[in-house]
Amino acid sequence: MLPLTARLVGVFTLFALTIGLSRAQDKEPEVDGKTLSQWVGIAQNDPSARQRVLAVDALGKIWAMNKTTTYGKEVIKHINRRMLNDGSAVVRARAATVLGKLKRDDLDKEVADALVEALKTEKESRVRKEIIATMTKFPGVCILGIEPLTASLKDTDPDVKVASAEALAQCGALAKSAAPGLVPLLKDKEKPVRVAAIFALGRIAPEGAATIAETMAAMLGTEEDVEIKRTLIKSIGLLAEKSDPVIKALTVALFDANDEVRRSAARVLGTFGPAASGAADSLLKVATTDKQKDIRVDAVRAFGSALGPAGLKPRLADLRVILDPKKELDYEVRLAVVEEIAALGYDIHMDKETLAALRKSQSDPQVLVRDAATLAIRKIETKPPPKKEPDKEVP
Hints:
It is a single chain. The protein is an all-alpha fold. The protein is built from 22 helices and two strands. The longest helix is centred in the N-terminal third of the chain and has 22 residues, at 4-25. The N and C termini lie far apart (93 Å).
């Protein structure tokens, strides 16, 4: 056994090593040769805005390296303060940008509240733009900031209006109160602002959606810019308002010179069901004449949807023409026709001409069409079982 003196020396040595290790672990972090405290002092007190910007950047680096420690939380507080209180717009904007580097899992209530408060109080457009850009990375913060985001739609800077509209779009129906602020932007002189407003209005489920949809439909009738037309059609589809002015505007768009505009119009009409019956003849024309096969496919689908089963049965002759491989060269279109016919099922089992056309399609050059025709015939000729009456309750 070691003598008592040696054992005591060993204990004290271990204690000293433990203390040293603890102090090493608690050592204040450094970046670019300066400690956290020094960078905080520069951020708060240096008369040079450039130096304070450098300090904010350094604080961001320190946070990235120490985000799981108490230092990390302390650093974020200092960055928040620079965003809220610094006398330089450049510094405030940089602080917002640094906060934008946080990941969703790193975001806490203190940062979220600071962003919303900063947007409420900030006077400089360039800083608001950076704050909103950071908020947009965190949809939950956008929801907390619906009120100041809506107010920012009146900013004189088009970039701020665009950023605000895009942030509100992320909030969905929770931001429906922003509609009165978005509608005037449909006439903004700047194209990006108009696009952002159209995009947002289609996603916030606004009050007065019918009026907004008809306003967009009117815009679609006069607009020449392809991007705006596509955005209008998408938002009209999301609003799902199916009034006559909307249907007519989409019907005109079926014959637009741009492929994507025609494609979008056909697809939206296909979601409207029988409300789009007024567009049926135009959809049939597109199904037989459009130069793009996928648009013809969409038009076939929309034609069936717009007429519904009852309306489609008397129009089957129009579809049967498309089944001829000599007239419709793309099998995808013929396949879509077979599937639309098959959806009618036993209701058309007495339609000898349609069954004959399907049997002819069993010899189609494309195997997928042949197989679909076989399944369609089977479905049409198979009588469904009688509907079972619900069991009567025993008194």
